[in-house]
C-alpha cells in the first residue's frame, strides 16, 4: 500500500462531512490565529486542506516506515533493563519519524506548539497508524492524554507540560492496580502531601500500564486517608525527570507486542495535583477514559481495515479448483460482510468524533467567555450525544475488529495459522480491543441507560427523517421496522421491572440500538457517495436486520425461568 490515507477514499469522505464547517468555526474561533501563526488556516477550505495534507503525511510515514517495521517489532518487542523500558529498534524508528513530521500534540493550541486540530482528523491519524501496527498506535496515540491535562490542569502546568508533548515526549495514564482493574474505585496507590517540599509523594504499585515508562504520567491515587471509594481519589501528574518510579516488569502479552505494558513501582515519587482533590475518578478519569475509548474505537477500525486488506488480497491471489477463491460464495460472503462491518463501524466512529469535537470546542470556549444560551444548548446536546455514542463506537468496533480478524484467518485457511502471514498478528492484536479501556460488557453498562431512557430511540427516529437518495429511499421501511423491534424489546424488558432481566438483555439491546444507528449512518453515507458505500450499506442492512430479529426473539421469550438457567451456567 503506497499511502495508508490516500489509498482509503472513505477517510477523505468522512473528513469532508458537512459538520466539519461548524467544528472548524468553533475550533479556530473564527480563524483568529491566522494573524499570529503563518501556518494557521484562513477559512474552512484552508483548514480542511491542512488536515488533508497532514493525513497524507501520516499515511506516507505509516506505509514507508511503520508498516515495514511491524513484523520486526512484533518479534523483538520492548525489554526491561535496570527499571527502564527499551523500545524495539523499529519502534524507535517509528517514533523518530512521527516526531520529525511534527505529528505530536496535534489537538493542542498553536501557542503550545500544537496543530490545533479537531479530534476528528486526529482520530483518522490514529486509525491509519493502527492499520499498520496497533502496538505502536498505543504509544503514539497516548498523546491524547494531554487533552485531560489541558482541560483540568492550571496555566502553569499547561506551560510546562504541553509543549513537551507537542515536541514529542510520550505519555501514559496510570490507573489500574493488581487489585483494581475495572473497579477503579478500589485504587489504593497512596498520595501524601510533603509539606517540607511542597509537593505530593506517591507510593504503591500500578499494573497493566500501557507505555508505562513514558515521560509524563497522569496517575490516579488515593489522596484522602481512611477512604475506600472513588471519593478519596485524585489525579496527579508525575514527571519521569523527577525519578521515583521504576518498571518492575513488562507483561508477556498475546498481542500488541510493540507496546510495553508495565508493572510500575512508585517509591516516594514526587508528583503534583491535577485539578481539584477528590475528583480524580468522579470527573477526571471519566473524561480521560472517554477519550481513550474513542482511541480504541479508532484502533479497532484500523485493525478491521488491515484484516479486510489481507483477506481481500489473499482471496484474489489464491486459486483452488481452477479459479481464485474470491469467486466462491463462501469467501465473497465473508469479504462483503467484513467490508460492511468496517464501513458501518467507521461511520459510527467519525459521527462520534464529530459530536465530541463540537462539545469539547464549546467547553474550551466557555473557559474564555460566557456561552450564549444557544451555545449552551448546543454544548449540552452534543455532550449527551458524544456520551451515548462513545460506548457504542468502542464496543461495536472492538467486536467487529475481532470478527474481521477471525474471518481474515479463515479466508487464508491453513496459511492463516502460520506465523509468516500478517493475519495472525492482526488477530492477536485485535483481541485486546474488546478488553482494555473498558470491556464490551462495561461499554454495555455505559450504554444501557441510553436504551432505557429513550435517547437512542429518539436519535434513531430523528435519523428516519433524513432524506436519502431515490435509489435507497425504498429501504427506509426496513430500518423503521428494525427500530420498532428495538422499541418493543426495550418496552418488554422495562415492563418486567426486574434489574436482573435488564442486565441479561442489556448486551442484546445495545447491539440492536447500535445496529439501527450504524445502518442509518451508512445509508446516509451511501446516499452521498454510492460508489463508496452502496454495496456495504445494503449488505450491512441485511446483517443488522437479521441480528435485530434474533435479539428481539430472544428478549420476547425471556422469562424468570430463563434467569435461573443462566445463573446455573
Automatic annotation (TrEMBL):
Keywords, comma-separated and alphabetical: FAD, Flavoprotein, Oxidoreductase
Domain Acyl-CoA dehydrogenase C-terminal: 452-563
Gene3D superfamilies referenced in this protein's UniProt entry, alphabetically: Acyl-CoA dehydrogenase, C-terminal domain, Acyl-CoA dehydrogenase/oxidase, N-terminal domain, Butyryl-CoA Dehydrogenase, subunit A, domain 2, Butyryl-CoA Dehydrogenase, subunit A, domain 3
Record domain Acyl-CoA dehydrogenase/oxidase N-terminal: where: 60-169
Coiled-coil region list: none
Domain of life of the source: Bacteria
One Gene Ontology MF term: acyl-CoA dehydrogenase activity
PROSITE patterns tied to this protein: ACYL_COA_DH_2
InterPro entries for this protein: Acyl-CoA_dehydrogenase_C (IPR020964), Acyl-CoA_dehydrogenase_C_sf (IPR036797), Acyl-CoA_DH_CS (IPR006089), Acyl-CoA_Oxase/DH_mid-dom (IPR006091), Acyl-CoA_Oxase/DH_mid-dom_sf (IPR046373), AcylCo_DH-like_C (IPR036250), AcylCo_DH/oxidase_C (IPR009075), AcylCoA_DH/ox_N (IPR013786)
CC cofactor: FAD
Domain Acyl-CoA dehydrogenase/oxidase C-terminal stretches: 283-444
Family membership noted in the UniProt record: Belongs to the acyl-CoA dehydrogenase family.
Name of the featured protein: Acyl-CoA dehydrogenase family protein
Amino acid at each position: 500500500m503506497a499511502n495508508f490515507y490516500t489509498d482509503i477514499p472513505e477517510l477523505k469522505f468522512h473528513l469532508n462531512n458537512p459538520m466539519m464547517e461548524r467544528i472548524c468555526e468553533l475550533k479556530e474561533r473564527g480563524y483568529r490565529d491566522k494573524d499570529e501563526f503563518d501556518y494557521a488556516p484562513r477559512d474552512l477550505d484552508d483548514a480542511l486542506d491542512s488536515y488533508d495534507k497532514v493525513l497524507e503525511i501520516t499515511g506516507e510515514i505509516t506505509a514507508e516506515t511503520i508498516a515495514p517495521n511491524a513484523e520486526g517489532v512484533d518479534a523483538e518487542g520492548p525489554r526491561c533493563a535496570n527499571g527502564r523500558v527499551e523500545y524495539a529498534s523499529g519502534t524507535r524508528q517509528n517514533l523518530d519519524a512521527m516526531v520529525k513530521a511534527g505529528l505530536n500534540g496535534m489537538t493542542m493550541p498553536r501557542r503550545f506548539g500544537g496543530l490545533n486540530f479537531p479530534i476528528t482528523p486526529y482520530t483518522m491519524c490514529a486509525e491509519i497508524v493502527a492499520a499498520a501496527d496497533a502496538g505502536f498506535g498505543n504509544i503514539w496515540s497516548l498523546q491524547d492524554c494531554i487533552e485531560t491535562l489541558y482541560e483540568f490542569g492550571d496555566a502553569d502546568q499547561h506551560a510546562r507540560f504541553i509543549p513537551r508533548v507537542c515536541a514529542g515526549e510520550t505519555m501514559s495514564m496510570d490507573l489500574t492496580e493488581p487489585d483494581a482493574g475495572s473497579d477503579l474505585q478500589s485504587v489504593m496507590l497512596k498520595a501524601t502531601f510533603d509539606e517540607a517540599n511542597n509537593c505530593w509523594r506517591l507510593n504503591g504499585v500500578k499494573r497493566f500500564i500501557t507505555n508505562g515508562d513514558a515521560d509524563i504520567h497522569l496517575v490516579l491515587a488515593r489522596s484522602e486517608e481512611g477512604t475506600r471509594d472513588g471519593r478519596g481519589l485524585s489525579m496527579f501528574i508525575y514527571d519521569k525527570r523527577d525519578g521515583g518510579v521504576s518498571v518492575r516488569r513488562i507483561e508477556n502479552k498475546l498481542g500488541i507486542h510493540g507496546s510495553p505494558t508495565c508493572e510500575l513501582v512508585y517509591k516516594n515519587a514526587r508528583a503534583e495535583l491535577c485539578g481539584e482533590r477528590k475528583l480524580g475518578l468522579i470527573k477526571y478519569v471519566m473524561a480521560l477514559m472517554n477519550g481513550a475509548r474513542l482511541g480504541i474505537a479508532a484502533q479497532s477500525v484500523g485493525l478491521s481495515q488491515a484484516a479486510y486488506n489481507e483477506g481481500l488480497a489473499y482471496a484474489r491471489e489464491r486459486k483452488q479448483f481452477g479459479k481464485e477463491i474470491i469467486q466462491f460464495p463462501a469467501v465473497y460472503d465473508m469479504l462483503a460482510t467484513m467490508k460492511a462491518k468496517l464501513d458501518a463501524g467507521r461511520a459510527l466512529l467519525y459521527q462520534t468524533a464529530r459530536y465530541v469535537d463540537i462539545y469539547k470546542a464549546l467547553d474550551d470556549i466557555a473557559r474564555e467567555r460566557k456561552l450564549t444560551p444557544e451555545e449552551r444548548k448546543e454544548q449540552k446536546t452534543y455532550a449527551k450525544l458524544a456520551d451515548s455514542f462513545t460506548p457504542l463506537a468502542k464496543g461495536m468496533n472492538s467486536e467487529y475488529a475481532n470478527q474481521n480478524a477471525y474471518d481474515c484467518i479463515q479466508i487464508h485457511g491453513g496459511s492463516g495459522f502460520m506465523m509468516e502471514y500478517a493475519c495472525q498478528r492482526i488477530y492477536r492484536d485485535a483481541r485486546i480491543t474488546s478488553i482494555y479501556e473498558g470491556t464490551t460488557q462495561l461499554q454495555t453498562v455505559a450504554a444501557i441507560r441510553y436504551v432505557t431512557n429513550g435517547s437512542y430511540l429518539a436519535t434513531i427516529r430523528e435519523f428516519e427523517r433524513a432524506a436519502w437518495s431515490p435509489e435507497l429511499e425504498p429501504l427506509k421501511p426496513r430500518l423503521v421496522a428494525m427500530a420498532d423491534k428495538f422499541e418493543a424489546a426495550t418496552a418488554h424488558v422495562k415492563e418486567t421491572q426486574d434489574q436482573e432481566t435488564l442486565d441479561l438483555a442489556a448486551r442484546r439491546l445495545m447491539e440492536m440500538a447500535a445496529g439501527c444507528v450504524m445502518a442509518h449512518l451508512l445509508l446516509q453515507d451511501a446516499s452521498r457517495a454510492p460508489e463508496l458505500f452502496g454495496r456495504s450499506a445494503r449488505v450491512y442492512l441485511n446483517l443488522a436486520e437479521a441480528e435485530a430479529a434474533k435479539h428481539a426473539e430472544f428478549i420476547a421469550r425471556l422469562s424468570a425461568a430463563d434467569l435461573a438457567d443462566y445463573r446455573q451456567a
